[in-house]
Amino acid sequence: MHRKALLTALIALSLPTASHAQPMGGRWGGSAIDQRFDGPARRSTQPAKKVDVTAFQAADAAPLLGKGAITVAAANGVEAEWKLPVYEAAVVDQLAKLGYDTAVSGAESGQIAQIGITHSVVAPEEQKRKPVSGAMEVGVSNRGNYQAMALNIDLSKPAKAIIATRLDVRIRDKATDRVLWEGHAEAQTREDDDGLNDGAVAARLATALFARFADAQVVQIGG
Question: Suppose 104 and one of 4, 8, 69, 78 were both cysteines; which one would form an S-S bond, judging by CB atoms 3.0 to 4.6 Å apart?
């Protein structure tokens, strides 16, 4: 979470008239100040903690999955290449844990896992606020004339944007190009001063996605 500090200072001055001058006290402190001077604390939208996962496998693919050689490659139309290696590494790590032989390159047989990465903005970065704001009221009470002023001092930084990152993986049989398994995982993260931590996001998404590898919904997958 980003650091927040909110300080409210209230200054009240009583200027009694000749006909109403009385010692300060009683109800003056409790009712003369309008409560609207108390500014509400800022409540920033927070990233969702849950990773949304959907996975499917072809009806007759179970005997073929989780074994043999597999190559990991980028799907067509993915984002800039510099973002992909950390996701490739995270997917390779999970495939190896499932029992695949990932130490292959350019093999003509076996399977191929195609990866796609997309980002979308869930909540934009907050706008900068004035560090000091306030309001003033002048009026007459049963104790005389008064002035009241409230200052809101907000020293917190604007919250960075919330980004949704989606990892798509499609496993195909190389010989037939038939889709055996496919799924996607999506998570939200706060963009920090150095940008998204792709390594942490990639590991989180790949782990959540392949946790559903064995119990993926069985369907007729085409394409």
Answer: 69
The reply to whether 187 falls in a domain is yes
Per-residue pLDDT tens digits of the chain, which is 223 residues long = 444 433 343 333 344 443 343 433 333 333 333 333 334 444 558 888 899 999 999 999 999 999 999 999 988 776 666 678 999 999 999 999 999 999 886 667 899 999 999 888 988 876 666 665 556 565 666 666 666 666 566 556 777 888 999 999 999 999 999 999 999 999 998 877 555 678 889 999 999 999 999 988 988 776 5
CATH code: domain of residue 205: 3.30.160.670
Q: For the whole model, what pTM was predicted? A: 0.66
C-beta of residue 64 within 8 angstroms of C-beta of residue 179? no
Minimal CA–CA distance to 222: which of 186, 185, 176?
Answer: 176
Cα 29 to chain centroid distance, Å, stands at 44
- Domain count across the chain: 2
Residue position matching structure tokens 């195609």: 114
Pairing relation of β-strands 144-154 and 217-219?
unpaired
166 and 143: one domain? no
Residues 66 and 119 in one domain: yes
Instruction: Please report whether residue 1 resides in a domain.
Output: no
